[in-house]
Design brief:
Blueprint lengths: L1 E6 L3 E8 L4 E9 L7 E4 L4 E6 L10 E7 L5 E8 L5 E6 L5 E6 L4 E7 L5 E9 L15 E7 L4 E6 L4 E6 H6 L11 E5 L6 E6 L5 E6 L4 E8 L4 E9 L10 E7 L5 E7 L3 E7 L6 E8 L5 E6 L5 E6 L4 E7 L6 E9 L3 E6 L1
Length: 352
């Protein structure tokens, strides 16, 4: 198994798990402009895209970086561009590899950048500023776009805005055809309004696009929604707490992911440092608590399941450690492997 690790450090790492002795080996490193906090891998083109999470005020701007993985095993920075907003923390690439969409957390904006045929950055297509705030003044004093997820069945981009308690939807087609003189013309619509103070962070869609699961960073809940593919609307059907006693400010929910089988849903919670498991009804989408397990470190910012669903990688940012788990196929619980990877401030891990 090979995977990329990004984080709040000066490099991205390509790592291999040696199946013979279960040890980790760093195959390649690539220097980053700064803080490659989130990654997106495109196997069709051999390109890896990263946020450059810089910018401490809304007036600042971060960046996006593109790396090519060569057949020789070298990972090389080949393209950079401005993110049109401060602290980009999430990005996604469309299925046709025509554009990248990124969410700027501190800037509270969404940007779309076109790609050349070789995967390098072309022109900026749109830069849309969110407006609003929420009741948690320490975190919701302004808009904070936290993630941008592309849902292929609807042709939409769904942006979780932690600061305004909304999920906003954009049309991929509108990004592709936006008036270059008026990039704000690609403005989105509200797909869902959440309870005040929820703080939506990330969203996971089912393979067929009919169901969506939203993780709320501030309320520490997971919300199950029905997704109207034609209208692009999310309707809440269920909301469950992630862990008992996580409303006291000592916990912050982070990542959410569906098991490839569709049988389980996973969520990471920083502070308690747990991975929460829900059993999922694949036909109706409803979820039921099924337990939790230790993340193996401190501050599990990100997790990713391997393509076969047999294993999970967890990036524990504050303990400088990526942990590997074997997933029990019956319970969905992760069983820790004996080996782990020590790496500075990991915030994203993506299997090839």
């Amino acid at each position: 198994m090979r995977f990329f690790v990004g984080g709040y450090t000066q490099d991205i790492r390509l790592v291999e798990l040696d199946a013979t002795d279960s040890s980790f080996r760093v195959l390649a490193t690539a220097e980053t402009p700064a803080n490659a906090s989130f990654l997106a891998w495109v196997p069709q083109t051999g390109m890896l895209y990263a946020t450059v999470e810089t910018g401490s005020t809304p007036a600042d701007s971060g960046g996006l970086a593109a790396y090519r993985l060569y057949a020789s095993g070298a990972l090389t920075l080949v393209s950079k561009t401005d993110s049109c907003g401060a602290a980009p923390c999430h990005l996604a690439v469309d299925a046709g590899t025509e554009l990248v969409v990124a969410a700027n957390y501190t800037g509270g904006s969404v940007t779309a950048v076109a790609l050349h045929d070789d995967g390098t950055f072309a022109e900026q297509l749109a830069c849309v500023q969110h407006q609003g705030s929420g009741p948690v003044t320490s975190r919701q004093e302004a808009a904070h776009a936290h993630s941008a997820h592309i849902e292929p069945h609807s042709g939409g981009v769904y942006v979780c805005d932690l600061g305004t308690d909304t999920i906003q939807r954009y049309e991929l087609a509108a990004f592709r055809s936006v008036d270059r003189e008026r990039p704000e013309s690609a403005a989105g619509t509200i797909a869902m309004r959440l309870s005040p103070g929820s703080g939506p962070r990330h969203i996971a869609f089912s393979d067929d696009g009919r169901h969506a699961y939203v993780i709320t960073e501030l309320a520490n809940t997971v919300i199950f929604c029905e997704h109207d593919i034609e209208q692009g609307i999310l309707t809440q059907l269920q909301e469950l707490p992630l862990l008992p006693g996580t409303h006291d400010g000592g916990a912050l929910a982070a990542e959410i992911a569906l098991h490839p089988s569709g049988k389980f849903l996973y969520a990471s919670v920083r502070g308690p440092d747990r991975i929460v498991v829900f059993e999922r009804d694949a036909s109706r989408g409803l979820i039921t608590p099924a337990g939790s397990f230790s993340s193996g470190g401190s501050w599990p910012r990100h997790l990713h399941l391997t393509h076969d669903g047999d294993s999970m990688l967890v990036a524990n940012e504050r303990s400088d450690r990526v942990c590997l788990f074997t997933i029990d196929s019956q319970s969905g619980i992760g069983i820790p492997a004996k080996q782990f990877l020590d790496t500075p401030a990991p915030s994203c891990v993506i299997p090839l």
